[in-house]
Every structure is written in structure tokens, then in C-alpha cells.
Design goal:
The structure is a single chain. By secondary structure, the protein is an alpha/beta fold. The chain contains 6 helices and 10 strands, in the order αβαββαββαββαβαββ. It has a 6-stranded mixed sheet, with helices on both faces. The chain has a two-stranded parallel sheet with strand order 3-4. Bound molecules: S-adenosylmethionine (SAM). S-adenosylmethionine (SAM) binds next to loops.
Length: about 200
């Protein structure tokens, strides 16, 4: 009987992994513990951890199928921990989610999850980061000072038609909920295909 490969594939993750890795290699210190939120397929966990040889990687997702895919992508990778189930909306986050981590990475969840997840991400990051740790988010955002690319407007409309609770977020609104959690935007890095890599930390 043929076995089913649990690995899911995201063409977007295939495209964006290399540019994200280049930025992380510049932004992050040589070693540390990374908590990844909403790891999805696990492609990022596998490839980004491989490119950051001093880092231990804790992938998470709230979807059981995602956990199986992450495990399969990361099989045999000694610095990637067993993926943990995490719904960012749970309070507090489960005890197996590491605290005092050096960095938290979250790609493409803010716009593909209900808005409450953004506040929950910020609050959880504030609880789980070391004092000097950083939260790095990646994805498309709406900005008052930058005209929204046609592709992002179409993507936003498509997301909202699939789920009215989804959609691109105003960066200013994201910064407000970050501030409520005690985090400020430290760096804004333009990425290919009108995405941003944002670095959040304590003031
Ligand atoms: C578009 S995928 C992004 C996956 C991956 N980070 C990437 O960039 O390829 C969005 C992910 O958010 C996760 N997600 C949605 N709501 C969540 C929640 N409340 N808590 C944790 N993860 C959530 C989904 O399971 C999914 O894996």
C-alpha cells in the first residue's frame, strides 16, 4: 500500500525562505533559542534552522496536520525540537512552550488568522521573550505612507472572500496592539513581493 507523505508544500515558503534567511543571518546573534509561531508546513523551520547553525528551533502550530508536516520536514534535524501545539489565543501558552527565548519568528499568520491572534501574538511574545529578545514577523501589511501594491490589494480581497476574519492588517494597528503588550517596532525591512520583515522588541 502506498504511504502518504505528511509533508505539505507551500510554494510561497519555497520562494521566501532564502530572502528571510539572509535577513535573519544579519539580524540575529550567532546562537540562541528560536520559538516559531504558526510554522505551517515546516519548510521554514527546516531551512531557516539549517542556515542558523547556532540556533535551537522550537516550531509550533495550532493545527495537528501542520504538526505532522513539520515533523516530517524536520526529521533528523538535531537542532529542531519536536513541534508543539500552540494556539496563540490560549492564555497562558502551554507549559511546553519555552520561555526566556532569544527570538520569536512568525510568518504569514497575522493576515491569515482572526485579528485577535495579532494581539495574542504580541502578548505571548512579551511573556516568552528574554528581556532583550526580539519578535520577527514576516508578511504583507497596509501602510498609510506607502501605496498598497495591486497584488496585495487583490490578495486582501481574496483572503476576505475566503474568510471574513482574515485580511491584510494596518501596520499602525499592529503597532498599537504591540505597544499594549510592551513591544515597539524596531526595524522595518522591505522584502520581495511587497512583504515586510518587522523586528519588534522592548523599548
Ligand atoms: C498561511 S499559514 C503560514 C505558515 C508559515 N508560517 C508560512 O509562512 O508558510 C498560517 C498559519 O497560521 C496558523 N494559525 C492560524 N491560527 C492560529 C492560531 N490561533 N494559533 C497558532 N497558529 C495559528 C495556521 O495553522 C497556519 O499554519
Amino acid at each position: 500500500m502506498p504511504t502518504t507523505d505528511p509533508r505539505q508544500h507551500s510554494p510561497a515558503a519555497e520562494r521566501n525562505t532564502a530572502p528571510i534567511l539572509t535577513q535573519l543571518q544579519t539580524l540575529l546573534p550567532p546562537r540562541g533559542v528560536m520559538l516559531e509561531i504558526a510554522s505551517g508546513t515546516g519548510q521554514h523551520a527546516a531551512a531557516l534552522s539549517a542556515g542558523l547553525p547556532g540556533w535551537e528551533w522550537q516550531p509550533t502550530d495550532f493545527d495537528a496536520r501542520a504538526l505532522a508536516s513539520i515533523s516530517a520536514w524536520c526529521e533528523g534535524l538535531s537542532r529542531v525540537r519536536v513541534p508543539a501545539q500552540l494556539d496563540v489565543l490560549s492564555t497562558p501558552w502551554p507549559s511546553q512552550i519555552p520561555t526566556a527565548v532569544d527570538a520569536i519568528f512568525c510568518a504569514n499568520m497575522i493576515h491569515i488568522a482572526p485579528w485577535a491572534c495579532t494581539g495574542a501574538l504580541m502578548q505571548g511574545a512579551a511573556r516568552h521573550l528574554k528581556k532583550e529578545g526580539v519578535l520577527i514577523t514576516y508578511g504583507p501589511y497596509l501602510e498609510a505612507t506607502t501605496p498598497t501594491a495591486a497584488g496585495n490589494l487583490a490578495f486582501d480581497a481574496d483572503l476576505r472572500s475566503r474568510n471574513p476574519a482574515w485580511g491584510l492588517r494596518e501596520l499602525a494597528q499592529v503597532a498599537l496592539v504591540a505597544k499594549e503588550a510592551g513591544l515597539i517596532l524596531r526595524q522595518r525591512i522591505g522584502m520581495p513581493a511587497n512583504n515586510l520583515l518587522l523586528v519588534w522588541g522592548r523599548p
